[in-house]
Each structure stands twice: as C-alpha cells, then as structure tokens.
Write a structure and sequence with these properties.
This protein has 496 residues and is of the alpha/beta class. It has two domains: 208 residues, no CATH class; 266 residues, Spore Coat Polysaccharide Biosynthesis Protein SpsA, Chain A, CATH 3.90.550.10. The chain is built from 17 helices and seven strands. It has a seven-stranded mixed sheet, with helices on both faces. Strand 2, helix 3 and strand 3 form a beta-alpha-beta unit. The protein is globular.
C-alpha cells in the first residue's frame, strides 16, 4: 500500500495546486467584469499639439525573417505620427539572404524622408534582449515601441497608446494581440483561444487591481527612463519581456493595459513552430520564477494579494507540470479506486476538484464573448472550442513540462525564435518554409506512446471493479487521447 499511498499523495497535491490556480483565475474574472464597468479617466497627452507630442523610437528586432520583412517594413512606414518626432530602428541580427533585401528596403524608405536605421551586431549576444539593449544606446525617443516581425499595428497605433504616458508614473503601455490567421486550422484556433484568455481575463484582471502584469515582448511601448531605471534588458532568461516587466514594477513603475487597442499578428501555422514558441515561453516563465520569486516575496512596496497573484503569474507555466502529473496518475488512481473500497470517501471528496474545469469554462466564456460576441450559437461554438483547446493543451503537457523542468533546474538553452510564414488566407502554404526544423524530437515518440496509454485508460473504464466498469474518468482520458494523438500525428505529418 506504500506505493499506492505515494501515488495518492502526489495526485492530490497536483489537484490542489490546479484548484488554487483556478481560484486565482476566478478572482481575475471578478476583477475583469468589474473593470469593464469603469469609465476611463486617465490623463492624456494632446497629440494635436506638436509641443506636447513626445519623440518616439520604434524598434523592430528581427532575425532571418525572409518571408515577412517586406510586409513589416511597408506596414511600419505607414504609421501616422509626426515624422520629425519618429525614429525607426531595424535591429537586424540576420545571417541569411534576408539581410541584403532588408538593407535595400531600408535605403528606399530613407529616400522618402523616413528616419529609419539599419542597426546590426557582430554576434547575437543576449539574443532579442541584446538587440533591444544595443538599439537603446542610440535611440532618440523618450518612448520605445517594440514590434516583432509578424505584427501589423494599425496606422493610428501610436496615437492610441502614447497619450497615456502623460502620467509620469506609467512605464509601459501594452495592447491586446489580434490574430490575422485565427481560422487557418485547429492549431491556430487553439493558440488564439489561449492568447485571448491571457489578453483579456488575465491582463485586465491583474492590471485593474494594480497587480503585476507583463509587457508581452511586442505590441507595447516603454518609457525609456523606465527601462534604464529597472536595469535595462537582460538576456539571462528566455522571456526577457517578463523579466524586465517585474523588475520595473518592483521599482514602482505602473503598467497600462489597453484591451480595446488590438494589434494584429500572425499565429504559427506549423506545429513545430508552435512547439518551439511554447517551449521558450514556458521555460522562460519557470526561469523568471527562479529569478524573481524572492524579490516579489521580500518587496515592501506591494500588497500580499499582489504578491500572491505575482507568484501565481510566474508559476503559470508550471501548471502544465501539475496537469501532466494528474493525467499520468489518473489511470493508476482508477485502479486504486476500484481495488480499495475503504478509500471510497476520499474519492468522493476528490470529485469536488472537477470544479476547477468548470471555473476555467466559465471564465474563458466571458473572454470569448467579449471578443467574438454572445448568443446561443456562439456559446455552442465556444463549448466545442473549449474542449478542443483543453484537449490539445493537455497534449502539449509533456513538451511543456520538460520546458518547465529545465527552467526550474536552471538549465540554459539558446533563444530559438519562432519562424514566420506570411500566411494571409487558407490557401497559403507554409510547407517550403526554409526556417522550419526537419528533425523529429524523441519526445514525439513518447507523445505517441502516451496516446496509447490513454487509449488503455478508456479501455480500463469498461473492465475495472466488479460493478460493470467505472466511467468517471472516461471523458478525461478521451480528451487526453485526442490531445496527445493530435500533437503526435500533427508533429509527424508536419515533417513531410
């Protein structure tokens, strides 16, 4: 019974941690709904007055972006802002043929009178953080807007964001990501679903109560003084944006989140690209928990509630570890439940934790409704999307657990940037993208075995016990079977 007791203990701890995270999400939902009722009364710059219009530098950190550089530069060159108050820095670490093409495009734009510079380095020290830091040395702007290569801000983006810096305590204004190819595939829909929840429920829910939020690496604008005061960009984690965000807020800088300003971007359409992005984000989150945990706990400047939300925010990616543990142990738990009758009361109590899924379902519905509209048909669409999202997210849990584990252990790895595709419609193909990895990770084989493992879990529902089976975990095992199966087969076919 010792082995069974260990399984029960680990399973219970993981369930309790997931429930605690769900309660935090519920609290953010309440914050989000209350914030929607508030009227905006923040002081703003009057940009119709040139004397009050501040100087802005736009930074475009790029690395081997052959497919999207033309689109990016055309879009940024159309930003509506006084030319004598605007500088554009293309921070180009490229090592392929995109470098020369970019240089020619920049030279052509310079002839139009646009203040645009091509800034290069001899090496990629610090990766994206290093490039941003290098550009900052010569940036003329009092405010620094940052866009990744796949982002397409609207012409009036600066006019919607810069005014909020009239409040001298504001260090960052962050906008919500949009998705130009949300409907391309199940994969893009799942990614959009997850990002929408972050950019509505979480960002608004935290920001409305003064809890820490993060600059999301792009589609936001910094006060240059804030960057320098917080210690400048550092490349010792894979999520330099989260790192600098926390260091800035620990120094009492305020962040302003604008849910109503949408900045369109392209979602990864190949699962290998999505995997590399997920790995970087989740490992970086764990690295930042290691780096920031004690600074948050010891800070005398923030409330206990803000500390709790901050720690849970930094532990976001670690939820994949708990989900993977619960998934892996759920089949042994099914057999333990039907083998030891005296544990009946324990399993009755444990069934309470299904409420975690219900909380996520309710919370994400409000964010979905706010972006895509409500009504019965939309609710049906949402319900189907929620279970697909949950299944595929669980299918990524092994991959993301490895990332989280490496982050918590302090294992270092290179910043692997996400390949861009220039996908505009369902007809566009990405199969010949030269930046996609052709290697098949050994983890994909394990994901295939996990698909079979959860198929066994579904079979077990019919044969355990002496009462004709136990189907309580069948839906859970079916979702895991679908999720790992989707990730496994999609990962294999993307290499073809």
């Amino acid at each position: 019974m010792i082995f069974e007791s260990i399984i029960i203990a680990v399973y219970t701890i993981a369930l309790v941690l997931i429930f605690a995270y769900a309660l935090a999400q519920l609290n953010l939902l309440f914050n989000y709904l209350r914030a929607k009722k508030k009227l905006e009364d923040a002081p703003k710059f009057d940009l119709s007055n040139l004397d009050e219009t501040p100087y802005v530098t736009i930074q475009l950190p790029v690395y081997n972006e052959l497919y999207v550089m033309d689109r990016l530069l055309k879009n940024i060159s159309q930003i509506d802002y006084p030319k004598d108050k605007l500088e554009i820095q293309v921070l180009d670490d490229s090592t392929d043929e995109s470098f020369e093409k970019t240089a020619k495009q920049i030279a052509a734009l310079q002839k139009t009178g646009l203040d645009i510079k091509h800034i290069t380095r001899k090496n990629r020290v610090g990766f994206k953080a290093g490039a941003l830091k290098e550009g900052l040395k010569t940036a003329k702007g009092e405010f620094i807007a940052i866009f990744d290569a796949d982002f397409l801000p609207q012409k009036d983006w600066l006019k919607k964001t810069v005014p909020y810096f009239k409040d001298s305590k504001i260090g960052v204004v962050q906008t919500r990501w949009g998705h130009i190819n949300r409907d391309y595939s199940i994969l893009t829909k799942v990614q959009a679903f997850a990002l929408d929840a972050h950019f509505t429920l979480e960002q608004v829910g935290r920001n409305s109560k003064g809890h820490f939020i993060n600059f999301n690496g792009t589609a936001g604008i910094w006060r240059k003084e804030c960057i320098l005061d917080a210690g400048n960009w550092e490349g010792d984690t894979l999520t330099e944006d989260l790192d600098l965000s926390y260091r800035a807020q620990l120094k009492n800088w305020k962040f302003k989140y604008l849910e109503e300003v949408e900045t369109p971007a392209e979602l990864p359409v190949a699962i290998s690209a999505a995997r590399s992005q997920q790995f970087r984000w989740n490992k970086g989150g764990a690295e930042n928990f290691r780096k920031m945990m004690w600074r948050v706990i010891k800070s005398p400047n923030i409330s206990v509630k803000t500390k709790v939300h901050g720690l849970l925010h930094l532990l976001n990616s670690t939820m994949f570890l708990n989900i993977f543990i619960v998934a892996l142990l759920s089949i042994p738990m099914l057999y333990i439940k039907n083998e030891y009758a005296h544990l009946k009361m324990y399993f009755i109590v444990m069934s309470f934790f299904v409420i975690s899924t219900l909380i996520f379902f309710i919370a994400y519905w409000f964010t979905f409704k706010n972006i895509y509209g409500g009504g019965f048909l939309k609710f049906l669409e949402y319900t189907g999307m929620f279970f697909i999202f949950f299944s595929v997210a669980m299918g990524f849990s092994l991959h993301n657990t490895i990332a989280v584990w490496e982050g918590h252990k302090g294992k270092k790895s290179d910043f692997v940037r996400t390949p861009k595709f220039n996908i505009k419609s369902l007809k566009d193909s990405w199969k010949n993208n030269k930046y996609l990895s052709k290697k098949i990770s050994p983890n994909i084989v394990i994901e295939g075995l996990l698909m079979l493992y959860f198929a066994f879990g579904m079979y077990s529902a019919f044969v355990v016990g002496d009462q004709g089976g136990d189907f309580g975990l069948f839906p859970f095992h079916f979702m895991l079977f679908f999720g790992f199966g989707y990730v496994f087969f999609k990962s294999l076919t993307s290499k073809v």
